[in-house]
Give the backbone structure.
Amino acid sequence: LQAPRARAAHTQTMTTMAAAAAAPARVGAATPRRLRSAVVTHAAGPRQLPVGIRVNLGTGKVTITDEKEEAAKKQLEADAQVAAATSKRPGALIKKREIKLKDNGNLTIAAMTEEDCVDATKLIMALFFKIKPLSLDFLAKDRLMAEQSERVYGGLSNGVTTSEDRLLVVAKVAGRLVGVAEVSLPGAKRFGAENVLPVAPNDLPYISDVAVSPNQRGRGVGKALLRACEAAMVSKGYSRMYLHTKLDNEAAQVMFGKAGYKEPAEVTAGLTEEQRAERSNSGEGVGAMMLKLRLKEPGSMLMAKDLRAKDYLY
């Protein structure tokens, strides 16, 4: 036999557990087995719940949270606040790190400095400055290259000394610059990338550039640069990042794919007929024919990655 007080307590506990077990049937948030052991908050005060489970008896809602993810977010945000106390520029979010590459080589990842801008300009120009041999610009190639180099250097220098909405990261092997990456923060100017189709959302971070020296590719340099950029954006509270890559740049698509980037389903669904034909390279019409003959610049693919804070705790 139970004393009246004990019977009352037993009845209250059983009622609470029954409510917890019934709640998932109403909202479909968890299985009855998981919730049979849950003791929820009631008038007598809070009781201990299984890790990550929160039950609201008033609404019947069950919330399952990833406590490791939440803890990682708090840690990264705390690190970002410490960095912000020293500088408002995004480069302060990058901690200098020594990374072991796939072939056991050593790589240094750090925020770009003004001293890095010359070497970074040379790398970017070598990889991205192209002039068609049969164009009129080819006759003025040297002049155009000098002018473009000056613009690139000026942009990089501004990014590391003045800008508060651009993140610039470098990768070095034995002190020699072998890779750079740039992220435009939400709302920042993207220097023409805002006109690239499909359009990347302006309210989320965007990777403007990832450049790796040809003789350093395949070692994991690009992935290390991406990871550093992603960790910095997660520390600022962002959970997704976008980038563009050319449709004919299969090497970049493979690298980004291995790093977790993919074309969002909503972007794929919204492609125009011309864009779909360009993907397959088997379309008909003048546009498709120009692409096959290389008389038209190839289009771009928009890729995105969902970021989890717990993946970036070192």
Observations:
- Confidence is low (pLDDT under 50) at residues 1-44.
- The chain is about 40% helix and 20% strand.
- The longest strand covers residues 176-184.
